[in-house]
Amino acid sequence: MAAQRIEAPATPPQDPQDPHARRRRIVRNTVIAIIAIPALIWLVLYITKGRFLKGPFESIVGRMTDRTVTVKGDFQLYFAPLRIKFYAEGLTLSNPAWATRPDLFAAEKIDARIAPLSLLFGKRRIYALDLTNGAADLEWNGAHDRNTWTFSEKKGGKPLEFPRIDVANVTGTTVRYRDPRLQVLADLKIDPIRSVDARIGRAVGVTGGGTIRATPFTVVARLLSPDATANRGKNELVLRARAANNVIDVAGTLPSIADIEDAPLRTAARGRNMAELMQIIGVVIPQTRDYRLRGQMVKSGDEYRFTRITGVAGASDLAGRLTVTVGPRIHMDAVMATRALDIVDAAPFIGFNPDIVEAKGAVAAAAATGAGPMRLMPDAAWPVATMQRFDADLKWTVGLVKSRKVPISNVDLTLDLERGRLALSPLTFAMARGNVASDVIFDTRPRPSAVSYDIRLAPTPMGRLLAGWGVSESGTTGTIRGRIQLNGRGDTIHDSLSTARGRIAFVMPAGSLWTRNVQLAELDLGTFVQKMFENKLEKPVQLNCGLVGFTVRNGVAAADPILIDTTKNVIVGRGGFSFRTEAVDLAFRADGKKFSLFSGQSPVGVGGYFASPRLNVISPDLIARAGAGLGLMLVATPVAGVLAFVDVGDAKSAACGPVLAGATAKAQRTTKGAARDDVGKGTTATSEDGSRPKGQKKDQKKKFLGIF
């Protein structure tokens, strides 16, 4: 029996209206389109090299960046095969309208292979880059709230960011950087860069120069970790800049090649004068001798913080911190400390050049400021305009001032400069076991500057204070205290004191004074001979009280009074000195309290100038008295000749109350309460109109400094 063939039932025809079949067709066609369209686009781009996209590229990128994009030569943009191939000749990308240069970036040729997905996600990556003669112009605007490389209208510029570059061949690259607020303009040239597999393998150099606040500078830098930089990693940078006789070295690790924000950088500076360094950023400080400083710098926004500063300036050490805030007005905030300050290094604080002081002395340094012959006070004008452009706060402590004459230590200076008003308040220091406190104000806002001096000397042992001028510490128990209060107008120290008004007073309470050399004390003839020829006193001078006071008017200081009461004598002085001419014209006279057979009874003068005072111990009065004595010996008897030197001892002891109070001559009294007739009445200051005080006798008309 033949086998029967069993046939499978025929598949029923599909219904065109079947919804499941319809969805399958849509999915199939979509997948084909998704694959075919990019393939077609890729094929078209690959065949045409994407040259037809030149116009759309310029237009689209221009709208995205709000800049003008131009490709003058050949242009290619396509996938080769899965990497984006970008090629452009004569590419330019414009700057915003406010910039000083037309183009942010221009290149003779760019040939790059770019990872497509990196344009959308993560770090941008360039597999290969060939860049020829690229030029970048990086600028900040005047308000420092926009820059040329941030493509946004929002305020606040972003730091430059570089992509990862695996293979690079970069030649002829230049960068121009401009920051109007810092007044910096730099033109830099970058050495050729060649890398393979994101490894450059050698340091990349940068050279160039420019100006900072009109001061020319040059710079040489090297990127020591170019491989890491190419991979957007750490950036080891060393840089050396030279400007205005200064050398600045910077080294450290940057977060990116063009960003120093919050990156600690090792910084060192050296030069012949630190004032030249600070002048670069528009800040005025006193001159210094050769200096060497090092520390750490961190930039944070508008602040440049220098910490761990150590070094020397001249023969003095320096340590501390400094913050410079850059804005419409530069502000400096510093805390500094010095263990030992050489007195020569302190000379610039009164306007002297320390190198001249060290080599030729103070008089030569004063002459270098424009002062006249034999002048000691500097006549250098303060930089008023610059002082009004920046602000500063300084706290400076000095352990010891190295000086041959006056022992000074524990200096504590607080400085405040705000809009042209400079205050040294307080300025305190220890001097010979005593303390000096002062407040000095230089206000440059009025014209000429208004200057005030208030200097206070706490009770200080005279032995140590005057040890450099022949006073022996052993046997000297006297102290001295005083105050100087002056107000003047002028743009130099000399001018401000030449117009000064005020008072100077130094008070000596009871004590003893022992001199090793000729000094102005105990001026009767016998003591004078001892001083002159034996160069010492057998016993200290016993002081009851003393006052050396001056009233200052229009820069001229007149004795008001000079009155020193000792156990044997009353010493009075007249005359004064001038801040205008720096001339000194003082006369001291000692009247004995007891009868003395041999007494000169004649003034001993101090003349000359601040820079070269002169002691007139053999005065014309003494010579005249000796002549009179010789005449009496010739016409009468030898005994009569000594009458010219007799002191009857009628000097009235001084009431120490007004003396110790620093009172003027008018208030001085004898111990019995009577007004003194040996001070005032022409022996001290005239009235303000220059007239002779009431009661002055005609024979008192000898003038000192033109004021008596």
Would you mind describing this structure in some detail?
This protein has a 32-stranded mixed β-sheet that branches. Strand 15 (291-300) and strand 16 (303-313) form a beta hairpin. The model is unreliable at 197-201, 227-233, 517-536, 626-648 and 682-708 (pLDDT under 50). 29% of the residues are buried. Helix 5 crosses helix 6 (362-368). The chain folds into 3 domains: 46-258, no CATH class; 264-433, no CATH class; 500-708, no CATH class. The protein contains 13 helices and 32 strands. It is rod-shaped, with a radius of gyration of 43 Å. The protein is of the alpha+beta class and 708 residues long.
Briefly characterize the structure.
Helices cover 16% and strands 41% of the residues.
Instruction: Assign the structural class, choosing from mainly alpha, mainly beta, alpha/beta, alpha+beta, or little secondary structure.
Output: alpha+beta
Mean pLDDT over all positions: 76
The largest pleated sheet is described as: 32 strands, mixed
Q: What share of residues is helical?
A: 10-25%
Which percent range describes the beta-strand content?
Answer: 35-45%
Query: How many distinct domains?
Result: 3
> What's the end-to-end separation, in Å?
168 Å
Large-scale geometry: rod-shaped
Uncertain stretches = 197-201, 227-233, 517-536, 626-648, 682-708
Number of strands: 32
Radius of gyration: 43 Å
Count of alpha and pi helical runs = 13
